Amino acid sequence: MDKARAINTFLERVDRFSQIALITDKEMENIFGEEVTMVLTQMEHFMTENRTCSDCGGVCCRDIGCELYAAQFGRCPIYEYRPIACRMHFCHRLDDPYRPLIIELRDVFVGCHSAMDFSDNSNLRSLDSPPLGEVCPEFVAAVRSYTDLVRNGKLRPDHAAQTVCGEAERYRGHCTAKRPPFETSQ
Ligand code: SF4
Ligand code: SF4
After folding, report:
1. Which of 31, 55, 167, 185 has the fewest beta carbons closer than 10 A?
2. Ligand 2 atom 1 nearest Cα
3. Domain extent listing, the chain
4. 58 CA → ligand 1 middle, Å
5. What does the chain look like in DSSP terms, one character per residue?
6. Is the model's pTM score more than 0.70?
7. Measured in angstroms, how far is the CA atom of residue 76 from the centroid of ligand 2?
8. pLDDT recorded at residue 92
9. pLDDT below 70 — which residues of the chain?
């Protein structure tokens, strides 16, 4: 992978987005370029085939203190909009046979993250999430009660996930209304 190109693409484009806390597959491709997307697709295929993350149940989500984590969900309730860090992090369970690609993805992520040291671009702060409370407090406030109810066994996870995902869409729409993103076809 051309890591420098992926990092430069990200840094050139990061300011074109109204927000990058909750991001889609297409936006990932727009912001990092095709090569990163191809690697992530390959990783995702492997994870799905081997049920790596679904069988694990999201230990990394729990350990990082993500506000959206509840074991009962089975997988991220905002999977379509999960943050960049969630998409580019792979634990040791996925090391074999993808260790070289995992290291390259980490390098790209760290390269982008280190731009925070010399830039005050507010979108860059999103690379520090989850937890999501710092970068999108409105969204977390809107969904916290649902995830709490799921954790306590008082709400069906599928119902809650629908609501949480709807709130993610609402948050994204709100950010776009405040600051429409640049269109990019590249
Ligand atoms: S990346 Fe690792 S710890 Fe996180 S959900 Fe997947 S298998 Fe589990
Ligand atoms: S937002 Fe990220 S850390 Fe939180 S549940 Fe989803 S994948 Fe896990």
Report:
1. 185
2. 82
3. 3-178
4. 5
5. --HHHHHHHHHHHGGGSS--SS--HHHHHHHH-HHHHHHHHHHHHHHHHHTHHHHHT-HHHHHTT-TT--GGGSS-TTGGG--HHHHH---GGGHHHHHHHHHHHHHHHHHHHGGGGT---GGGGGGG-SS-TTT-HHHHHHHHHHHHHHHTT-S-HHHHHHHHHHHHHHHHHHHHHHSPPPP---
6. yes
7. 5
8. 83
9. 182-186
